[in-house]
Write a structure and sequence with these properties.
By secondary structure, the chain is mostly helical. The protein has 39 helices and no strands. Binds to mitochondrial small subunit 15S rRNA.
Length: 907
Amino acid sequence: MLGSALARKAIRLRSLRSRRLLHSYDRPPTPSIPYLTHLPPSSEPTRPFPLYQPPPPPEYIPLTKETLSQLPSDESLNRQLKDRLTEKAIEGLPELTEEDLKDFYADLVQTGIDSREDDVLAIESPGGQLKLPLDIREREDILNELENRLIGSGDIEQQGGLMKIDEESSSAPKHYKIFAALARLGVPQDGPSGTNKSPAGAIQTQQGVDIPLGLVSKREWNVLFDEFIQRRDARGAEALLDVMTLHGVPVDETKIEEIIKVDAAAGRVDDVGRLTAEMANSGLAISDSHKDLFILSLLRHTPSHPQNAISQLTSAEQAGQPYPQSSYQVVLQHLTQPSPLFQPNAHTRALAWDLFANMRLSAHPTPTRELYTTMIRTCGESAQPEPERARDLWIEMTENEKIQPSREEYSAIIRALGSTKKDYLEAFDLLRQMLAKHHDAIYTPFSSEEDGLPRFSQYVPTLETFTGLLEGTKRAGDLNRARWILTETVKLARTGKMLNSKEWRDGIDADLLSGIFMTYASWKPLVRRGAVKVKDNDEVLQEFGEDGQIKSEIEAKQLEEKNVTDEEWLDVDVMEELVESSSSKSEAIQDSSNSQSNLPLTPQSSADALREATALFQRILHDVASPPNPDTYLPFKDVVLGPKLINSYISVHMIHSPSLAATKKAYEEAWSAVSEITKGNFKPNGWSHLQILEKCSHGTRAGMTDSDRPVAFEWGQAIWDEYLSWSTKATKELETISEPSMKDRKRWLMGLGDRQIERIWKSAIRLFALYDSTPSKSLHILEEFFVRYPPEDILKTYRPLPEVNGLKIKLITPNSTPEANVPPYLLFNDVKLLHEKLIKNDDIKGLGKLTFYMKSYEMMLLKRRKWRFRGVGQVKERNRGKYAKRERKRLEKAKVEMIEGDAEGVD
């Protein structure tokens, strides 16, 4: 029994072990506790349960780069300290509400209103801030007081005075008398004045008289010097500086610069060089402005030949001492911008682009803001528009060079984009950006419009900006935008006069108003004149046609006009203040059932446009003729009436007037009113005669009817005779001008340019060929034109493109440059009507003359074109530049040798 029991226990134990071993393959092994061999042994003694246990020792942190980088910085420590101090300071204070925070922020913003952005940008030099401007009356009072003190009144010698008036100087101007008195009282001293060759030395006497200090104050010296400068008397101002030195008065460097400016404006190169050399010898620094004045003197000395100034720039580049970009700016402005001394053409603009490219290659790779502005403005020339090039320069300036544009840059790009009909809307987009920047610059939070006067910023548009926009509107006939421009300019002029802003204090000018009238002339009415007929005021105007085709056409045009110009910012309300509503008495289609408020605010017909233009012109005449009144604002008070403004107004009548007789009446009334206001100072010029002859000579193509033909022939004959007599006098007046560039500019302004002469003679030939019974008069005019402007002049006036030595790159080729200075000529299409009249009358002799004249002009033009493409005369032009350069070096060398010889003779 015992044995069997032990055997069963042994079997049970073995089965249990085998079962455990079987299950051990299915479960993961139990993790064992690792031995912490890297930890230091515990030094804590074993003790029974303590009543107090000390804190554990701090953890050991090794000083490595990682641990040091994790330490807090000084900034974070200061921030934590400020946070703790702030929490302690506001502990126990009530929390601020939203209204309290808003009031606090408003007070904070109001404290910075006085520090405007334009005030920070317009910081003047210390001298400019200290110098107070004096008006004419104050200067006159100071000179009178100084004259009485030094000279006295009458011929009696003053007992306490200084001298008596000489009989020779009694008729001299006041400032010369004072100068003579001070020169005689000066004490000669050794110094720069003793060696100066100014006229002061001839006036000094043998014995000088000491003047008590303070007898002539510094302010009086400055007023006397300014009197010489304003009279453009540089030598007198220079002599006055010598007298000031004799009296012990310190001479400011700015006074010498003022004298250099006068000499540079007059083109006196030698005097500018002499004064600049004297400044350098005296130890004074030659600034960039002095270099600019020297370049300006070269341009003013020979305005028709800017190659001398460009050669000076290129010579400095080759010497490794290039002129500043401001000097290049002076030359580029002269070549591209019209002035009383110079009339730019295609050749001068091509030379400007070559100089601009050469400057970026040899001297200054990155142009300044002013240079970008000048070249962008060059792209806006109406005779040669280049909006694509202007857009490229604009992107380069704003995006590549990161130059933030100001109003000058915006005005330039707007003028360039407005020079074409397809790009002028982009100019309005840029104006929108400009106005957005202006509003951002003047915006003040938590302020209303009633808080103070309106403010101007550096982004406020100027007259140049709006005139550039009108260049586009008058090409596209966009009358709504032109009326909006007139509204905004009137508002800005009123605000600028109130704020005495230098951009708007002079008000609106004649160029802007001329653009407004030209837009009226190019605008196409929504309602055609043939679509309506005028009846009595009590009758309803009826439409022609039974199917309503004209009505649907009018509605389509109105819808198209609304879609084009219906913008939120385009608020046209100029006529609310200047004239009555154009539609209140409109002769266009009206519905008597509609109320007055439903009438359109913009012109719908030619009669509406003509009424608005006439009212605007009458308002201009009223404001100009009105006496000045400080209590009444007249927006057109400062407008200068001239032929351009009157001609642009007459062009509106030329297009929209119902008859030529009405146009003639408006022409006579306008010039009569202007002559009465200006006392005969302004009369019709060549542009005035041109538009009338072109209108009269085009017959029904110009919108005239059969009833206008007698008026057209009679008026055209009178205008042609008037033009011949006027052109003869004007030509004699132009012959007195010796400088060719000044003569070209004057001719263009008077309407005697080559293309203007060509157009007016063509119109006269067409006029007599169209209305006269025989072609003899028209043929006689053609013969006279051939004698006055022979075809040989086309070759005689040929000039090669300007060549300047030193220009390493050229952007313009002869093939891409339009021809300039081509004398008047006629082609067959210009006399086609006369040719048909001669064929009709079987005038074989006249046909032979006409054919000979036209073939002569065509052959000469073709020959000149071949010369241009072949580059005839270009080598001679280059050699001429090289010869001028050698001659200039020879003269400079001879001058240096002469000075050295004089110095050796003195020794």
